[in-house]
Design brief:
4-stranded antiparallel β-sheet, globular, 90 residues, 4 strands
Length: 90
């Protein structure tokens, strides 16, 4: 489920409504991921480690970033998106 409240806050703070209209017009192509979701592409494993946390209200947009661990054989890399300090504490 797409968090339209978050999208609307983004538009109020940072935009002129174009982002919200784009999301509304294309909402059927977006899927909200859940912690623990995994995707396998050959030798690559992508695992969702964190998603938006409604308890974090500071730096809302950045702290709504998805955190993904990508693992290939014995190498693992975290992709933090734009995660803020508050989200990183979790």
């Amino acid at each position: 489920m797409l968090d339209l409240e978050l999208v609307e806050r983004y538009d109020i703070w940072y935009g002129d409504g174009r982002y919200h209209r784009f999301i509304e017009d294309n909402r059927n192509i977006y899927t909200e991921r859940l912690i623990g979701d995994c995707f396998v592409f050959g030798d690559l494993i992508l695992e969702i480690l964190a998603v938006k946390n409604p308890e974090i209200t500071t730096n809302l947009l950045n702290n709504s970033s998805v955190v993904i661990r990508v693992q290939a054989n014995d190498v693992s890399v975290l992709f933090l998106g734009d995660l803020g300090r508050e989200g990183g504490r979790n």
